From TrEMBL:
Name the record gives this protein: Putative outer membrane starch-binding protein
Superkingdom of origin organism: Bacteria
Localization terms from the record: Cell outer membrane
Pfam families xref list: SusD-like_3 (PF14322), SusD_RagB (PF07980)
Domain SusD-like N-terminal: 23-229
GO CC, alphabetical: cell outer membrane
Keywords: Cell outer membrane, Membrane, Signal
Organism of provenance: Dyadobacter jiangsuensis
Gene3D superfamilies referenced in this protein's UniProt entry, alphabetically: 1.25.40.390
Lineage: Bacteria, Pseudomonadati, Bacteroidota, Cytophagia, Cytophagales
Length: 570
């Protein structure tokens, strides 16, 4: 039970009136609060709690937390998986970059809707808080900053997914919202609007909150650093990266240094501890979507967004075999005799785990035949668990899953939920963001110890990977990079490699490729080789100037009578 945290309150199911920037202006959830009775401290606090709930109110068909479809399957990290290409065929469309159908009504339209509902909740709370005085509600200023953080998060996610989105704050009336275009601000201006919310949170939140799960000054600093890093890679109207803004990079360094120097966060000693419920909210978690189970409510507050992704043939799970790591990703974990990545030749052949050396993170990320599954040596992963190996091969994703024996695990019919938190920003991300900024500023020597912290932790993260006889299923050899030959080009290559291995199947990969301006060349090269291994990819092709972002949902364009402008290429 997690009732001492903010999500213990979230589980109470507080609901609120809401406005939105689309056809969900008519959305009327059942609840007790209205414009007549929100002007009290207790009502405001309830609205704040509901806003925290809003950022985690997603589902399999409208993801907000795990971006496994949008960021992992759309990248070179993973295949859709499941029972063939026609099983939840909509996800196959993302994998093939086939989203040009104007009637496409699944997944990303619901993600758009869900994030704007979350924004609406934050704005409703802000309206209530703005109507109070500090005397009436002593925590008012802190709660306002928290709501602006949450609003910033939702707008950031929308921008990362769709690029051109309307910015909605509490000052806009319902009529104003209907007039707010998704291209009112250019790319840089929209980043700045969203950044204003995070900066307000940095300036007005305490460094540490009494309740776990609430936004703090440091989580806001980390998120603003993430925003500035994305903003630094300047794009034209057709999504081409035209330059890197050094001033933005310096902001990233300053903001991440505030987080690092605070001493409040650190890497978990074992990489595994980021992916099991028993060690969640640990020193590495900077901001996470909070979930709960056995919290006094009927069903708890569980996440089902990855509920299709457990091994289909395993008797303890039984559904549904989605999100299978690619052969390309498995090969990327190969290491040379010096324990370093094979940058140029990693994909020349398929990795042989019995003879070649690999980075230990592979066994935290990929389910492999005969290797301990999710740190349980008594139940090694079996190829028999894979649903459709003829299409997608035998590898299976693992980070997002929990053992059936975990107190966080719950099965509802064929689908699986978990109360394991979903991290939005971790300390490893902060270290690598700072390293990236240093490298692009030409100060790559300062990035070396940051990246080596990540590799040192990876090399040490083998304690939970032993088989029942005490041996390892893989041959591990991961070493730190040397200062010799650490040029800017080499450092950039190493940084990008570390980001892939560290966050593989967690979704950042696609968005990293777009940010760096290398999505088209990387993904089409991946497809060219991978379609020989996996013929279902034969018709996949990434189109530059279109596929970097999702299309604006057609129903939103229709509802606004053409006010919203469709993204290029759609």
């Amino acid at each position: 039970m997690k009732s001492k945290y903010i999500f213990g309150l979230i589980a109470s199911g507080t609901l609120l009136i809401t406005t939105s920037c689309n056809d969900f202006l008519d959305y009327q959830p059942q609840g007790l609060l209205s414009s007549e009775n929100i002007k009290s401290a207790s009502a405001a606090e309830s609205l704040v709690t509901a806003a925290y709930a809003g950022i985690g109110n997603d589902e399999m068909i409208g993801p907000m937390t795990s971006m496994w479809v949008y960021g992992s399957v759309r990248s070179d990290d993973a295949y859709k998986g499941g029972g063939g290409v026609s099983d939840v065929a909509e996800i196959d469309f993302y994998e093939h970059y086939n989203l040009t159908r104007p009637d496409f009504g699944w997944m990303h339209p619901y993600t758009w809707e869900n994030f704007y509902k979350a924004i609406s909740r934050a704005n409703a709370a802000l309206t209530s808080l703005n109507a109070l005085t500090d005397a009436e509600f002593p925590l008012r200023a802190t709660r306002i900053a928290e709501m602006r953080f949450l609003r910033g998060h939702s707008h950031f996610m929308l921008k990362m997914l769709f690029k051109n989105v309307p910015y909605i704050d509490e000052k806009l009336s319902s009529d104003d919202i209907l007039k707010e275009s998704n291209v009112r601000y250019n790319n840089d201006e929209l980043w700045n609007k969203i950044g204003e919310d995070f900066q307000f949170a940095v300036d007005n939140l305490p460094q540490k909150q009494a309740q776990i799960g609430r936004a703090s000054k440091l989580s806001a600093s980390a998120y603003l650093a993430k925003l500035r890093l994305f903003q630094a890679y300047e794009q034209d109207a057709n999504h081409k990266v035209t330059g890197i803004n050094k001033n933005r990079l310096q902001e990233v360094v300053t903001l991440t240094q505030q987080v690092i120097a605070s001493g409040q966060y650190s890497l978990q000693p074992d990489f595994a501890e980021n992916f099991i419920a028993e060690t969640e909210n640990g020193p590495e978690s900077i901001f996470a979507i909070q979930y709960s189970i056995n919290d006094g409510t009927a069903a708890g507050r569980l996440s089902y967004v990855t509920g299709l992704n457990y091994p289909h043939g395993a008797p303890q799970y039984g559904c549904c075999g989605f999100h299978q790591p690619s052969q390309n990703l498995a090969n990327a974990y190969r290491t040379d005799a010096n324990g370093l990545p094979l940058f140029e030749t990693f994909n020349d052949k398929n990795v042989d785990f019995s003879t070649e050396t690999v980075d230990p993170r592979v066994d935290h990320t990929i389910g492999i035949d005969g290797h301990p599954y999710k740190y349980d040596a008594t139940k090694p992963f079996s190829n028999s668990w894979v649903r459709d190996p003829g299409v997608y091969g035998f590898f299976h994703t693992m980070k997002e899953q929990q053992l059936a024996t975990s107190p966080s695990y719950h099965k509802e019919g064929p689908f699986i939920g978990s109360s394991k938190n979903i991290d939005i920003i971790r300390y490893d991300d902060v270290l690598l963001m700072q390293a990236e900024a240093y490298i692009e500023l030409g100060q790559q020597a300062l990035a070396l110890p940051l990246i080596n912290q990540i590799r040192k932790r990876a090399a040490a993260s083998t304690g939970r990977l032993k088989k029942t006889d005490g041996s390892f299923a893989s041959k591990y050899n991961a070493k730190e990079y040397s200062a010799s030959g650490w040029t800017q080009d080499y450092a950039r290559k190493a940084l990008r490699w570390e980001r892939r291995l560290e966050f593989a199947t967690e979704s950042p990969r696609f968005f990293d490729l777009v940010r760096w301006g290398i999505a088209e060349q990387t993904l089409n090269a991946y497809i060219e080789k991978e379609k020989v291994r996996r013929p279902f990819l034969a018709t996949a092709k990434f189109t530059a100037g279109r596929d970097e972002y999702l299309p604006i949902p057609q129903r939103e364009i229709s509802f606004t009578k053409g006010l919203y402008v469709q993204n290029p290429g759609y």
